[in-house]
């Protein structure tokens, strides 16, 4: 007797859950606490969590692109830290093209199913029907 396997129905568009709200609130609390402690890299928390939210809930970015972005972000922050540049602007300005590239690559994919996918992706129905 074989078990009855049902494939999960695929969804598209913006996503938001209670756990997302909890993570955002925890990140805001941690950021506030780090600012209060005069921690120079306090801004890393909202930058990382904000991008995670953007990639996972708004544009639904592939994991490998998220990991690529994270690797560049860590290297970017490390280089600025070693140069004793603690202001967020230089790091975020260097990171912005990577963020734009990751989102653009995702949105041009036939597997794109994030925000505005119905308008952007002519192959969305194929993705949703798992026929790509």
List SSEs in N-to-C order: HHHHHH
Low-confidence sequence ranges: none
Structural class: mainly alpha
Oligomer: single chain
How many domains make up the 3D coordinates?
A: 1
How many beta-strand runs? Answer: 0
Rg estimate, integer Å: 18 Å
Q: Can you give the mean pLDDT? A: 92
Characterise the protein shown here.
This protein has 132 residues and is an all-alpha fold. The chain has one domain. It contains six helices and no strands. The protein has helices spanning 18-36, 44-58, 63-82, 88-107, 117-120, 124-128. It is globular and about 50 Å long. It comes from Prosthecobacter vanneervenii. This is Transmembrane protein.
Quick summary of this structure?
The chain has 132 residues and is mainly α.
State the main characteristics.
globular, Transmembrane protein, membrane, transmembrane, mainly alpha
Topology readout:
Blueprint: H1 18-36, H2 44-58, H3 63-82, H4 88-107, H5 117-120, H6 124-128
